[in-house]
Every structure is written in structure tokens, then in C-alpha cells.
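WARN retry 2 of 3 for item q-0093 after timeout on previous attempt; input resubmitted unchanged.
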Amino acid sequence: MTATPPDPDPDRTPGLGLEPGGGVRPGDTPPESGSTTRGLSRRERYPSRALPMITLVFVIIVLLAVVAFTVISLLGIVKVF
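OK item q-0093 returned
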């Protein structure tokens, strides 16, 4: 299903007071088209910084675990030899 365009088709809209060539007579107002924007009425929210901080902490914990595992493995290998 396709959406209908927001502006009416001037060729199929009767009685808009259009002059030949599609112009509008002085004093007439063309129909308004729909809008999907809010303009500047509300401030946009900034994305939360909590998720990147949680991700950073998680990455640091994983790196520390990998380093600890590597050190313990190397100490075990050195102890064997």
C-alpha cells in the first residue's frame, strides 16, 4: 500500500480559485500541506552517556581478566620448565 502525497493534485481538485497556468488569485490562500516536523518547538534530548561508560567499564574488566589469565598461564608454563 502506498501513501498518498501530502499535497492535493491541482488538476483533480475543483474550486481552488486557480487562474490559468496554476496561479492563485490575490487574496486566495492555497491549501496547507501536512507536516511531519515539529520545527523548533522542543529541544532534542542528547543520548545518554551511561551506556558508553558501562561499555568502557565492561571492556576494562574483560581486558584485566585476559591479562590475569595470560600471566597465570605463563607462570604455570615457567613453573613446569
